[in-house]
Design a protein that fits this description.
Blueprint (H helix, E strand, L loop, with lengths): L4 H14 L27 E8 L2 E16 L2 E12 L1 H4 L4 E10 L5 E10 L2 E10 L4 E6 L5 E5 L5 E2 L2 H7 L11 E5 L2 E5 L1
Parallel strand pairs: 9-10
Antiparallel strand pairs: 1-2, 2-3, 3-4, 4-5, 5-6, 6-7, 7-8, 10-11
Helix pairs in contact: 1-3
Length: 191
């Protein structure tokens, strides 16, 4: 199968950031009660995180529901994610990543995904639009002008919308959740 190291890492960080009070499951005597599937996100909700490597601070980031806007004539939540290395790490490996996901306000399906990634010498700047009727994603690199169409399954999420999808799912012990995840011009079936 396909490997998913970077996407899995980002998704894992986002999931951990969203856990209540940042506590591990071992610290709770009672099961955590998750809310029923929300029909709306809360504009202004912001989750912050601090990156550490062997207990050494290396950077900061956040994910925020910025606004309710319009994409392709549909009301959409604009979610922004930023991650930045601190001054010490930036001297030899600067990281400045900004991601945007636009979710249909009614269905929470992704409509558009944008990534501006600067990590060391690596650069990526892309926009992906999702056409749910045609079941295609149109990828555009803003660095080299390349355009690519990717076939999509009926149901999928992008890296950011996956957090909100996962948060909205009823969780039951022993019942795995599966998700088609779009990232890096591919679809990964995750569990």
């Amino acid at each position: 199968g396909n490997s998913l190291p970077k996407a899995a890492l980002v998704f894992s960080v986002l999931f951990l950031v969203s856990s209540p009070s940042g506590l591990s499951a071992q610290e709770h005597a009672e099961p955590i009660a998750f809310p029923a599937t929300p029909s709306k996100l809360r504009v202004g909700e912001r989750l912050s995180f601090h990156g550490r490597w062997f207990a050494i601070p290396i950077g900061d980031g956040w994910i925020e529901v910025k606004e309710l806007t319009t994409i392709e004539g549909r009301p959409a939540y604009h979610i922004e994610v930023q991650g930045h290395s601190n001054d010490v790490l930036s001297t030899f490996y600067p990281i400045h990543d900004t991601l945007h996901s636009y979710l249909d306000a009614e269905t929470l399906k992704p409509l558009r995904f944008e990534k501006d990634q600067r990590e060391g010498h690596y650069r990526a700047h892309e926009v992906v639009t999702f056409d749910h009727q045609r079941q295609t994603a149109t990828y555009r690199s803003l660095l080299n002008g390349s355009v690519k169409e990717i076939e999509l399954p009926d149901a999928f999420q992008d890296l950011i919308s996956a957090l909100y999808w996962f948060r909205a799912q009823p969780l039951e012990p022993g019942r795995p959740l599966t998700l088609n995840l779009y990232t890096d011009e591919k679809i990964y079936n995750t569990q």
